[in-house]
Amino acid sequence: MKNKLIFLISGIGVILAFVSAYIYSIEHKALPPAFSPASNPFGKGIYAEGIVESYQTNGKNINIYPEVSGTVRQILVAEGQAVQRGAPLFVIDDTVQRATVEQQKSQAEAALALLNELKAQPRKENLKISIAQVELAKANLKNALDSLDKQQKSYELDPKSVSKDVLDSAINAAKVAQANLDVAVKQYDLTKAGAWIYDIKNQEKQYEALIKAYTASSALLDKYTIKAPDDGVILSVDAAVGGYVSPQGIYDSYTQGFDPSVVMGGPQGKLGLRCYIDEILVHQLPSIPKMHARMFIRGTDINIPLEYVRVQPYVSPKIELSDQRLERVDVRVLPVIFKFDKPKDINLYPGQLVDVYIEAK
To answer: For residue range 57-84, what is the model confidence (pLDDT) as tens digits?
Structure first.
């Protein structure tokens, strides 16, 4: 009985093995590709990878970095928003700089007030005091001369009536009164003349220096509001409220690199295309006026004719598509820039990778 059971189980295993072998030997029809790869539309064409950009007459997208460091206080734009030159994009906390500007403004205003005070001299009140001091000195001199005259006449009539010491004192008193009058007159002339020209010039220079410091601080304060350098569209905003930004950019914890705070593109009526030609194919490029190319959008059967713009005459390592600075590459490429009208019925965005064929000479 036991042997029969073993033979039965063995038979079932053999049958299952044959069934499994048959099932797995059946060939399944391959799934169709997600999209047809781009085919060369030219008799002889050069293939290149391309990346869509906002169209610029020169350079690439506009990478915006602040000129000052600080914490972002407010974001004023959204990605995809069209902006005009001078439109504020985001604001960095300017509390300290604003206080510095106010302080320097007050210092400049104080220096101007002192300068105006010097130019307004003499004050009528000070001039009246100087005149009064002169009149007082004249009165004291007259009093001293009258007293001296009396002493001298008495001495001439009777030398014993006035001692020599008293007469000398009266003479000295008259001289002191005369000196006091001379000082009062000179003080009056000084007061009447007003501020010294060199004091005015010195104060003018101090005021100019403070005004320049205030102007420079005000200009720096304006840089805490980051503005659009040109008309265009906001492609990406990496700055966040409460985040820290600096002239080096914003630290990305994922890539451990620094990214621009805002990336702007030109107006979206036209888009640019930057493709990279392998250095071994550069010699096959046609002459510039006769360069024809077509762009194929991946995932579709759509292709768009391209209009030649320029060649960047500098062969560089092929790291532009990945933007990995530490990437080790052996291929060097020549950037060629085209432009095209943005299709209305197709979603196409800057940064998108496409296939490009250029007609070879």
So the answer is: 776 788 999 999 999 999 999 988 999 9
Q: Classify strands 232-237 and 62-64 as parallel, antiparallel or unpaired.
A: unpaired
pLDDT at 7 over 80: no
pLDDT of residue 328: 58
What is the topology classification, in CATH, of domain 45-59+266-359? Elongation Factor Tu (Ef-tu); domain 3 (2.40.30)
pLDDT above 80 for 254: no
| Confidence band, pLDDT 50/70/90 cuts, at residue 2 | low
Between 289 and 93, the more confident residue is 93
> How far apart (Å, rounded) are the C-alpha atoms in residues 319 and 304?
25
Each residue of 272-307: b (16+ CB within 10 Å) or e?
A: bbbbbbbeeeeeebeeeeebebbbbbeeeeebbebe
For 122-194, CATH number out of 3.40.1130, 2.120.10, 1.20.58, 1.10.287 equals 1.10.287
Average pLDDT, the chain: 85
What are the residues whose beta carbons fall under 8 Å from the beta carbon of 258, sequence distance 6 or more? 248, 249, 250, 251, 252
3-state secondary structure of 205: helix
Burial of 116 (0-12, 13-18, 19+ CB in 10 A): exposed
Long-range CB contact pairs, 317-325, < 8 A, 24+: 318/276, 318/278, 320/51, 320/274, 320/276, 321/49, 321/51, 321/276, 321/353, 325/257
